[in-house]
Amino acid sequence: MTDNTKRILIGEISTAHGVRGLVKVRAYGDDPKTLEIYGPLYTSETGTKAHQLKLKHQAGGVWIAQVDEIDDRNIAETLRGTKLWLDRDKLPALEDGFYHDDLIGLSVIDEAGAAIGVVTGVDNFGAGDLLDIRREGKPNFYLPFADIYVLNVDVERKTVTVDIPDGLIDD
Fold this sequence. Notes:
Elements (H helix, E strand, L loop, with lengths): L6 E11 L4 E6 L6 H4 L3 E2 L7 E2 L1 E7 L2 E6 L5 H5 L5 E5 L12 H4 L3 E3 L5 E10 L4 E7 L2 E7 L5 E5 L4 E4 L9
């Protein structure tokens, strides 16, 4: 990784599966094939240790995968909780869209153009994506990433235009 290459988190190994060293992997993003087609995945945001995954099949909300040459459950179990990172520049450019990582640092404004805050993260606790918005001198808040609240994302202008529902934040 060069000094200016950023990594993004694209998945996580949740646990071992079976006795032959397979693992269960949660894919973050729309295309789980990202876990295997862009080469080895790093186990940290800045380190050099990496694993190559081969997806076998989907099982519920996770994928069953083979990691490198691991063929033993005990070794696979040591990977539990391993985050999987990819160099951002390996992902293809999107013609009509953006990656969640592209939202970090964008200014959040209302329809009138008034500043609300800055996107500090995009989280998903199981019920859908949430923008983590930091406001100057006030507590952060989450805004559901849904069309009804997020009206426009302009990566070039570095803005996210939102409609905040009444009662979500105290001013």
